Amino acid sequence: MPKKKSPTLPLHNKGRKGKHSPERLIFTDLDGTLLERESYSWRAAEPALRGAEKAGIPVILCTSKTRAEIEFYRKRIRNHHPFISENGGAIYIPRGYFRHDPPGTTKTRKYLVRELGRPYSELRGALRAMQKKGLKVRGFSDMSASELRKLSGLSLREACLAKKREYDEPFILGDPRQDTRLLEMTGKLGLQCIRGTRFYHILGDNDKGLAVKVLTDIYQQEAERPMVTAGLGDSPNDFPMLRAVHVPYLVKGSDGGYASKSPAFARADGIGPEGWNSAVLKFIEEEF
Q: Which residues pair with 170 in a beta bridge?
């Protein structure tokens, strides 16, 4: 981590619509990080959210949640920046956000979309194949919204949004003894299996880290100085994102511990949004 000097707000250029050239970026997970794990509240992070906004530092949501879920939370925290859905499955950039449309994106009514993941139908088919071979796995597509609500603590509305998958299928494993076999089977299918805060996920060769690198490069093309990036997460599926940024922070899990002992990750002082708040305020005040 760069050596800390006297506290100061970062140099930045808020620009006008279509001209976003900040010099810092914050990538963040949602569940258990910016959002409290049980209540899904972000209120403890409110001071840092507003501080980042005032400093002109985009807060980029990078999560296993679907586009529909992310839009739900973006509206509530008043976030208008690009975001990364479903463990790096796709990058969504609001139309007109950058001076130029980034190459490799597809235009929709609201966004420029850079797809990195495999189609959901392919992932769902792979999970069905594993079920037929005796693996006790149940994906979101096997569950009703009511069942998912009970498992996740989401509201019924949010559970419906969570089922709108495009690039990633979360699932539960009924028999922990099948864990090794699960990893072997997903590997043979050319897919990967990762574990999040609550669920396993089956996906293609994308991850949060790849998406962070792609989006950072897009920002860098319009920036006047080299970017400095921070990342915040709480679980193993966040590790690729944390390895892709300059300043990686692990926040405490609900049990008060950290998901890794690696010295490569800084440790935020606090659980979930409380730790997020302290780490982001520190990043804002750091001089690089």
A: 201
> The pTM is what?
0.89
**pLDDT tens digit string along 190-234?**
999 998 778 999 999 999 999 999 999 999 998 888 999 999 999
Contact of 62 with 268, CB cutoff 8 Å = no
For the chain, where are the alpha helices, taking DSSP H only?
46-55, 67-77, 120-132, 145-152, 156-162, 179-188, 208-222, 239-243, 273-285
Task: Report which residue type is found at 71.
Answer: E
Q: Mean pLDDT across the stretch 95-118? A: 96
DSSP output for 83-120: EEETTTTEEEEETTSSSSPPTT-EE-SSEEEEE-S--H
SS3 47: helix
Which are the contacts of 95, defined by CB distance < 8 A and separation ≥ 6? 107, 110, 111, 112
- pLDDT at position 20 is 61
Identity of residue 159: A
Give the model's pLDDT for residue 196. Answer: 79
C-alpha neighbours within 13 Å on the C-beta side of residue 206:
30
For the chain, domains (ranges, CATH) are 24-117+207-285 (3.40.50.1000), 120-203 (3.30.980.20)
* C-beta atoms surrounding 75 within 10 Å: 10
pLDDT-derived band at 14 (thresholds 50, 70, 90) equals very low
Q: Which residues are catalytic?
A: 29
Torsion over CA: 198, 252, 65, 194 (sign): negative
DSSP string, 184-223: HHHHHTT-EEEE-SS-EEEE-S--HHHHHHHHHHHHHHH-
Residue 169 dihedral angles phi and psi, to the nearest 5°: -115, 110
